[in-house]
Amino acid sequence: MRKYIQNLQVVNKQILSEEYYLLELKSLQSLPEILPGQFAEIAITGSATFLRRPLSIHDVDYDRNTISFLVQIVGKGTKYLANIEPGKFLNVIFPLGKGFGLINNLEKALLVGGGCGIAPLLYLARHLYNKGVSISTLIGVRSSMQFIEVDKYKLYGKVLITTEDGSEGTTGFVVNHPVFEQLSQFKKIYTCGPDVMMKAIAKKAIASGVDCEVSLENSMACGIGACLCCVTETIEGNKCVCTEGPVFNIKYLKWQI
Amino acid sequence: MRKYIQNLQVVNKQILSEEYYLLELKSLQSLPEILPGQFAEIAITGSATFLRRPLSIHDVDYDRNTISFLVQIVGKGTKYLANIEPGKFLNVIFPLGKGFGLINNLEKALLVGGGCGIAPLLYLARHLYNKGVSISTLIGVRSSMQFIEVDKYKLYGKVLITTEDGSEGTTGFVVNHPVFEQLSQFKKIYTCGPDVMMKAIAKKAIASGVDCEVSLENSMACGIGACLCCVTETIEGNKCVCTEGPVFNIKYLKWQI
Amino acid sequence: MADLKVNIGKLELKNPVITASGTFGYGEEYSDFIDLNRLGGIIVKGTTLHPREGNSYPRMTETPSGMLNTVGLQNKGVDYFIEKIYPRIRHIDTAIIVNVSGSTVEEYTATAEKLASLENIPAIELNISCPNVKKGGMAFGTSCSGAGSVISAVKKVFPKTLIVKLSPNVTDIAEIAKVAEAEGADSISLINTLLGMAVNAETHRPVLSTITGGLSGPAIKPVALRMVWQVYKTVKIPIIGLGGIMNDTDAVEFLLAGATAIQIGTANFIDPQVTIKVIDGLNTYLDRHNIKSITELTGSLII
Amino acid sequence: MADLKVNIGKLELKNPVITASGTFGYGEEYSDFIDLNRLGGIIVKGTTLHPREGNSYPRMTETPSGMLNTVGLQNKGVDYFIEKIYPRIRHIDTAIIVNVSGSTVEEYTATAEKLASLENIPAIELNISCPNVKKGGMAFGTSCSGAGSVISAVKKVFPKTLIVKLSPNVTDIAEIAKVAEAEGADSISLINTLLGMAVNAETHRPVLSTITGGLSGPAIKPVALRMVWQVYKTVKIPIIGLGGIMNDTDAVEFLLAGATAIQIGTANFIDPQVTIKVIDGLNTYLDRHNIKSITELTGSLII
Ligand SMILES: Cc1cc2nc3c(=O)[nH]c(=O)nc-3n(C[C@H](O)[C@H](O)[C@H](O)COP(=O)(O)OP(=O)(O)OC[C@H]3O[C@@H](n4cnc5c(N)ncnc54)[C@H](O)[C@@H]3O)c2cc1C
Ligand SMILES: Cc1cc2nc3c(=O)[nH]c(=O)nc-3n(C[C@H](O)[C@H](O)[C@H](O)COP(=O)(O)OP(=O)(O)OC[C@H]3O[C@@H](n4cnc5c(N)ncnc54)[C@H](O)[C@@H]3O)c2cc1C
Ligand SMILES: Cc1cc2nc3c(=O)[nH]c(=O)nc-3n(C[C@H](O)[C@H](O)[C@H](O)COP(=O)(O)O)c2cc1C
Ligand SMILES: Cc1cc2nc3c(=O)[nH]c(=O)nc-3n(C[C@H](O)[C@H](O)[C@H](O)COP(=O)(O)O)c2cc1C
Ligand code: FES
Ligand code: FES
C6-296 has which CATH code? Predict the structure, then answer.
């Protein structure tokens, strides 16, 4: 897929909580096709950051010509973007990576997002919904106060929730949710979140014989396959997460689980 | 003099031209005494600059508790400050340096500012005016469009102007102004601007036997006498411009002129 | 339009802007963003005799105005390069230079020999300065005898332009450069990365899988400029300067300090179009300063 | 409140935060901003036997995440220090350490001998690593024999704590550290500045009067951390780590890599209160991590 480098205009910024915000960027040209699970590399100039920052594409609006990102503030760059004002431009390379495996005769899928890991799942959910897939989205957060995006996911299927503090849904971590006891009802699991979470899910998926794809967030320098910094070990050797991923089928990964 | 480090609030920013702007900062405590010719070191965080930036104190308003700066955009830091919004805070170390020599029985003084070199002269002009000194302020700029602050200086005495393009006042450089032909009418010259300009003025001052002080803008790392980076050669050896200056009597400097 | 052509040994480049090894893949990775034919040269990823998997993840971390990497020369080996990659990139209208690494002198010569037969590879860059491999690599570049032995051996099997890339992790860079020149290098490129390290204060662990890694980016520019200047005063062969070049001004600084051409590495990650901007910027710079040929800048520092 | 006390040779510091030579004047310059008595130590400006005017202006320039300086050891000589400065600062309740430099071994020893008699100077730091003087300075710090000769001579005349400050501009820092230890250094501090250079592309001139200068600040932190780690694996004497420390996290990184104490240099220019913030930050860090004594951090990197 062709990659683009464009100055996109910030058209909307929505603070969701102390930690999370949404950023909507508009292209002045028309958007290329973007697949669920792809990501973008955003340049943050004039701040103390040096490299671009990779962010999953959270949603795409071809009518308005916008892409949006769901961002968690963890350091300098994500904080800088949280303070950017609508009207400003950001230099963005996109769409990057291969995205989720989208098979045709999929009936029922489970989407699992841990924390900010839900970012790539919204666009995926809509995509699957439009293809007639019946989906359940399991969202795991620390506390109910952390997230206010649940309604969007409800448009495309069932939403299940776990909170660590028990303030909503099932108490505990994502993998504590009862849905994992009937895992074989699903044909596929798509998941994104902390490595430990994805590994726990992968283990359950293997045990139940369900196909499972994980979206990795390895640290990246270039995002376009040039630096070989972002590799993950696969059965075919080290592969770049930025070009061969970020989504991988767990069968392909050499994960110790 | 005691030095302070404070977070000052930007209360006013006034763009004067493409190149120049005024920045007014307010102290939440009460201002210490500040002498004409002293400067401040402003921290510019979260940008690509690293060190603080030294700026002369352009004006002081003890009633409003503010100090202001006249800044010329020359690079990263001065550009960053040009875009700062009122309400934000800047960390400032001030007042620094010794300032102009303020003798008591001064009758008539000539102030000469080249370009942004007029910055420290406004506060000096008012100070001298209040002491009953008759002053002429000679301002040299490239073009009349460059500057819109002339009226302020008129409050305290005569204003003479040179422009390089002849768009206002005498055509040419500062030292081309006819005032230099009757230099001995002044008891003292105070000047700030590019080194070449100040050296030319110093030459004329020496020739006419007029006392002359120059305000230097040597590059500085600390601004408080700790690093010894900002030295100028004097008859007593290398001296720090940040603590022994920035104003020096030309008699004291080992200038090749 | 000033004349941007420069000569590196027998090799004429259309302009002095070359991409640095390990930061530009095989060029193809950037073809969506720039016209590769406009580049002065492309130095492809470090290539070894045998395939290498490289080091474990994590391989990089950001540092103030720079980054640390420990890729460890992951590549599929010179045969794979010749069979699969070379045919795809040979038609790019630029000097395609292969960066060659090895653990022993024999590995260097065997790799160089294979590359010598490729029509559209006019030069190789001997990497005797990689800090991220256990054997060989930087060890060759940090001693005069080490550098000398590799260069003279490779020179015998590789008759085309031989560029030797030096390690900055040495007490006396000029001394090593002198050996490189004496042993027959046609050009010297410098600097490779500075050996650095990062620690995660929360986890108490090193950030990189190999603990130490190579520092690149603007942070190292002052060191790189100094070394180019020191080497320029010592050798007569052309120098290719690199280390933290982000824009045309940086490039001019290296030329003034003594470089005939420059390489751009880490900056490609931040702006994949930076090389073209530097080429255009050099043109503008020369016109503005009324300089007819870029070669006039080399070493013209006024001191 | 964790225990912040550390020992450097015979010297106990109330906390591991020391100010770096040449960046903190004689301490007095900072007394309007912080309570000097809270510091673990103050290392005063480089002091030589005879007065020195230092290098010509310009002496500094900003670089990406750092700065270059070429002050060139401007100071009024050790006698002036003893007569005029020492009486003013001797009562500050912190370890006041004098950074000693020289052009010959005799100059080093003569200076050290004079300082040995000062009651409130518990240690000196031998600067065998200054890149900005023509004779001596770094020359001593970049060869084992050079370092050895100065250290053993000074050791004979200075019975108190002897810290030796190493130059990072070497191929093998561990080798030099080993010599320093063998010759009797009680502690090693590192790193001094990296030799760098800046060029003004518009004027075609070097920015610094001496063409090259010393690079400091966060840009060099990865190199400094790496060297502390390499030296920690080699010597048994305590290491004082420095180079680009801007906050408590940076300080912890150096401790984990092997430092017993740390110095803060360039950061003082940006925030004259940084030292106190680091001390407070270390306290908080230790409490948060449930660590009783800061000495537990030294070299505790998990690998
Ligand atoms: C393909 C991909 C997609 C991503 N999608 C999203 C997304 O949609 N929304 C989102 O909020 N974040 C996403 N991330 C993570 C995001 O890129 C990082 O949070 C961001 O780069 C941190 O930048 P910073 O400057 O705020 O933090 P920094 O100041 O750089 O770092 C803060 C802390 O986070 C750690 N850190 C930073 N990046 C990583 C990383 N990649 N892996 C492990 N630790 C890291 C640092 O070590 C440090 O401790 C994605 C990452 C990748 C690779
Ligand atoms: C005591 C003192 C008082 C000053 N007062 C004022 C003032 O009132 N108003 C004002 O606009 N400026 C003043 N200056 C100059 C001002 O500090 C610089 O213009 C500013 O630091 C430049 O920062 P920057 O990040 O915008 O430029 P940079 O990006 O740092 O540099 C841009 C260009 O300017 C050059 N440059 C920067 N600083 C200096 C310097 N000090 N000497 C020579 N060349 C330099 C650089 O080499 C570069 O070419 C003063 C300087 C001093 C030392
Ligand atoms: C991710 C990465 C990989 C690199 N791989 C190689 C390599 O294979 N061979 C080599 O000679 N240099 C390699 N280098 C060093 C660069 O070519 C260059 O010398 C260095 O990064 C300094 O230049 P820069 O600051 O412009 O990046 C690599 C650098 C980076 C950042
Ligand atoms: C302006 C300046 C002057 C310095 N003078 C000395 C000196 O006299 N003696 C010395 O040993 N180191 C000197 N140094 C080096 C510092 O002490 C320190 O080793 C170096 O700056 C790295 O630490 P930093 O990055 O925290 O500044 C000087 C550094 C600077 C920036
Ligand atoms: S981030 Fe550079 S190859 Fe993936
Ligand atoms: S700027 Fe540091 S001594 Fe003047």
Answer: 3.20.20.70
